């Protein structure tokens, strides 16, 4: 069977660059190419099948356009990660017939939700709707995000289940690797995952205000919202004193997993799907995870039988926190988020001769 030629269109970041390296190991460089937005140092020169779409785009416009044109013409499939530089599709509308969209589920779905649009954002939103309406396949592990995308953009894209990034691949030996959690007299609670106001930290703090036997950990090393970070710290120390512990320094992956293993429960209060990588890591470590029941991620977990819990239980059934059964999660993680599933789904996409054969 002839392999499909895949072009990946992406921003170079902590999720996509490890993917580039791994896909280059699995597939021959003649089977794919990576168009990466960023500077020349975003990836090693030794990595095959990579072109850098340099910024600022105005200065490098024509050279970038030539690179994009060459790959878009050649591609059987264009896998767009998030929504990078959508204006290129205005020059190559034929590319929409080849388009696969990796939905991040954050600003790519909700970018202008609740915002006042000015002339610039109205124009950008029109480009966004034009491109995303033409998508043929949604690549995501949350079917609800695919349904929302079709609803928001009037598209008719098909859903292909896929963990996509290595950050979503879990290993059930994590608990053995990091050792058993040492129980303490206090309940170790992780709240949120970044400095983004969408974490809604204060609401969770209010639920726990009168609880004495808790220790609150807040990761605040990720995200640009310095004012919100300072606000969270101020409120946290006022409510919990030395039982509030902000995490302000970046950790290596191993350090972060070891830290997560000291947590008893985690509470995420996003109103939309976020923090899936850390959620999956926590589940693999056998932790209780509480999320907002209005999110697509909560529905996705529940539909597949995962033992993930509604945030309302934090306020209403505090005495049961840390005691709930999460035993089913290990097998389900292996079924949906193993390395084997991750590689199998990439091979499915690479071997797909036409969208029509996809069901």
Summarize the structure.
By secondary structure, this protein is α/β, with parallel strands linked by helices. Helices cover 38% and strands 16% of the residues.
Q: Can you lay out the helices and strands and say which pair or pack?
A:
Blueprint: E1 6-11, H1 16-26, E2 32-37, E3 50-53, H2 61-74, E4 77-81, H3 88-91, E5 99-102, H4 107-110, H5 119-133, E6 137-140, H6 143-153, E7 158-161, H7 174-178, E8 187-191, H8 201-208, E9 214-219, H9 226-240, E10 244-247, H10 253-260, E11 265-268, H11 276-284, E12 288-291, H12 296-303, E13 309-310, H13 312-316, H14 329-337, H15 339-350
Parallel strand pairs: 1-2, 1-4, 2-3, 4-5, 5-6, 6-7, 8-9, 8-11, 9-10, 11-12, 12-13
Helix pairs in contact: 5-6, 14-15
What is the CATH superfamily classification of the largest domain? Glycogen Phosphorylase B
At CATH level 2, the architecture of the largest domain is 3-Layer(aba) Sandwich
- Can you tell me the overall shape? globular
Relative helix content: 25-40%
Identify low-pLDDT runs: none
The description of the largest β-sheet is: 7 strands, parallel
SS summary, helix count: 15
CATH class of the largest domain: Alpha Beta
C-alpha termini separation: 19 Å
| Structure class | alpha/beta
Number of strands: 13
* Computed Rg: 22 Å
Name the quaternary structure.
single chain
Strand content range:
15-25%
Order of helices and strands: EHEEHEHEHHEHEHEHEHEHEHEHEHHH
Query: In order across it, which strands form the biggest sheet?
Result: 3-2-1-4-5-6-7
And the CATH topology of the largest domain? Answer: Rossmann fold
The average pLDDT score comes to: 89
Question: How many distinct domains?
Answer: 2
């Amino acid at each position: 069977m002839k392999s499909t030629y895949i072009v990946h269109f992406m921003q170079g970041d902590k999720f996509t660059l490890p993917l580039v390296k791994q896909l280059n190991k699995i597939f021959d460089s003649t089977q794919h190419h990576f168009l990466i937005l960023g500077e020349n140092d975003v990836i090693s020169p030794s990595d095959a099948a990579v072109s850098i779409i340099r910024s600022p785009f105005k200065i490098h416009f024509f050279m970038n356009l030539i690179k994009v044109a060459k790959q878009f013409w050649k591609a059987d499939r264009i896998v767009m990660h998030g929504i990078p530089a959508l204006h290129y599709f205005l020059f190559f509308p034929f590319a929409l017939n080849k388009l696969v969209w990796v939905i991040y589920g954050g600003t790519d779905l909700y970018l202008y939700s609740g915002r006042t649009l000015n002339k610039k954002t109205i124009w950008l939103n029109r480009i966004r709707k034009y491109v995303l309406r033409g998508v043929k396949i949604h690549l995501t592990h949350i079917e609800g995000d695919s349904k929302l995308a079709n609803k928001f953009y009037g598209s008719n894209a098909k859903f292909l289940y896929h963990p996509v990034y290595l950050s979503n691949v879990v290993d059930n030996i994590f608990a053995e690797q990091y050792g058993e959690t040492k129980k303490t007299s206090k309940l170790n609670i992780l709240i949120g995952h970044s400095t983004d106001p969408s974490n809604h930290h204060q609401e969770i703090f209010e639920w726990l205000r009168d609880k004495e036997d808790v220790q609150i950990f807040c990761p605040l090393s990720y995200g640009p919202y310095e004012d919100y970070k300072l606000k969270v710290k101020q409120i946290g120390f006022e409510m919990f004193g030395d039982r509030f512990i902000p995490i302000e320094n970046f950790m290596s992956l191993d350090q972060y997993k070891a830290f997560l293993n000291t947590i008893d429960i985690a509470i995420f209060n996003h109103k939309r799907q976020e923090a899936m990588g850390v959620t999956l890591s926590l589940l693999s470590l056998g932790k209780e995870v509480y999320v907002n029941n209005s999110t697509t991620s909560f529905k996705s977990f529940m539909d597949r039988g995962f033992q993930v819990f509604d945030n309302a239980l934090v306020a209403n059934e505090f005495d049961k926190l840390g005691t709930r059964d999460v035993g089913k999660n290990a097998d389900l993680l292996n079924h949906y988020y193993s390395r084997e599933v991750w590689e199998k789904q990439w091979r499915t996409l690479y071997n797909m001769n036409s969208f029509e054969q996809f069901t």
